[in-house]
From TrEMBL:
Protein name: Aquaporin
Entry keyword set: Membrane, Repeat, Transmembrane, Transmembrane helix, Transport
Record's subcellular location: Membrane
Alphabetical list of Gene3D superfamilies matching this protein: Glycerol uptake facilitator protein (1.20.1080.10)
InterPro entries: Aquaporin-like (IPR023271), MIP (IPR000425), MIP/Aquaporin (IPR050363)
Domain of life: Eukaryota
TM helices/strands, residue ranges: 32-51, 71-95, 116-138, 158-175, 182-201, 207-229
Molecular function via GO: glycerol channel activity; water channel activity
Family designation: Belongs to the MIP/aquaporin (TC 1.A.8) family.
Length: 345
């Protein structure tokens, strides 16, 4: 069975400067930067929208202003941010947006190690920039909140806690929470999310079509925030380390935290690997049939005009696309940009 290949250039004319740029963007010297930008932008999107509500909640509590935000709103804000991140940036980079996901892909899916290192740096940078942008947008109000804490004589006791201004950016645990329970809270939540993510990207899971995957993943994060944010959760090292670095930039070493900062930033990584292994053992079944929606998703990716075919040549825009699995490329092929050269645009 075959369907015609129709490229964007066949139906939409772009300005000349963009067609010139497209001749270069898939070269080995440029394409890695495009993918890293997409990873950074994806993290920026979900941190920017989620943190905005988080800052509003902290400010409202300190200023005794009711109705500015709630945990329910924060969960939805991060949820929408994740949907925006995956749908806007995922088609360019693959949509990891989390060091834990990237590392798991290296271990279980053969994702290139050098590329993974670049992705992780980009992800943390995206979170860091988002936190600084949100801080400066809210700065006048946050200065008032800090002044209010000082006026009440509770600045030192509250500032670097979940209820303080810095607590909106860097993750701190409540005094009543033990390290052991904090570890358990983070590990269990990240394991559940890892299973959900692996289910969402399983092409044999007929109940989750590719177009629904962003929403399934986002709903998982929202549910975790609604149920377990009070005992302290991070869920993503890019958000946590980016926020911690931003807090250190703004408030200095007072924002470094204690031993909990290691739990907050690192536990999500082994938890996600563990979740993926669980899914591969108990839920993955190679004898399942891949449904049409997933085959179409794979076909669209495999027939990118600048990807080489399994035989090494570029795609022929006039050739019908085959859905046969024998004509698909390899992981290595899709994870390495083709050599730079003349391209029809």
């Amino acid at each position: 069975m075959s369907v015609p290949l129709v490229y964007l250039r066949d139906v939409q004319k772009r300005a000349g400067i963009f067609t010139v740029w497209e001749k270069q963007r898939h070269s080995k010297t440029v394409h890695w930067a495009i993918e890293c930008f997409a990873e950074a932008m994806g993290v920026f999107l979900y941190v920017y929208f989620g943190l905005g509500s988080q800052v509003a909640w902290v400010f409202g509590n300190i200023a005794a202003e009711a109705g500015l935000a709630s945990i329910f709103q924060i969960g939805f804000a991060y949820c929408f941010g994740i949907v925006f991140a995956i749908t806007v940036c995922g088609s360019t980079s693959g949509g990891h947006f989390s060091p834990a996901v990237t590392i798991t892909m290296v271990i279980l899916r053969g994702f290139p190690k050098a590329k993974a290192a670049r992705y992780i740096v980009a992800q943390i940078l995206g979170g860091y920039i988002a936190c600084l942008v949100v801080y400066y947008q809210w700065k006048s109000f946050l200065d008032l909140a800090e002044a209010g804490l000082k006026a009440k004589g509770v600045f030192d006791a509250v500032m670097f806690t979940p209820n303080g201004v810095a607590g909106a950016f860097a993750n701190f645990k409540l005094a009543d929470q033990s390290m052991g329970r904090a570890f358990m809270n983070e590990f269990v939540n990240c394991t559940m999310l890892g299973i959900i993510i692996w289910a969402a990207i399983d092409p044999s899971n007929i109940l989750i079509a590719p177009v629904m995957s962003p929403f399934i993943v986002a709903f998982g994060y929202a549910a975790a925030i609604w149920g377990y944010s009070v005992p302290s959760i991070s869920l993503n090292a890019a958000r946590d380390l980016g926020g911690r670095l931003a807090a250190l930039t703004i408030w200095g070493m007072d924002a470094k935290g204690d031993g909990f900062s290691a739990i907050s930033s690192l536990v999500n990584i082994p938890a996600t690997v563990f979740a993926a292994v669980l899914y591969e053992i108990f839920f993955t079944d190679s004898d399942r049939v891949i449904d049409a929606s997933h085959l179409d998703y794979i076909r669209v990716h495999a027939n990118h005009a600048r990807l080489p075919t399994p035989h090494g040549e570029k795609q022929d825009p006039n050739r019908p696309a085959s859905t046969g699995s024998t004509e698909k490329g390899t992981v290595d092929m899709y994870e390495n940009a083709p050599a730079n050269g003349p391209t029809n645009v």
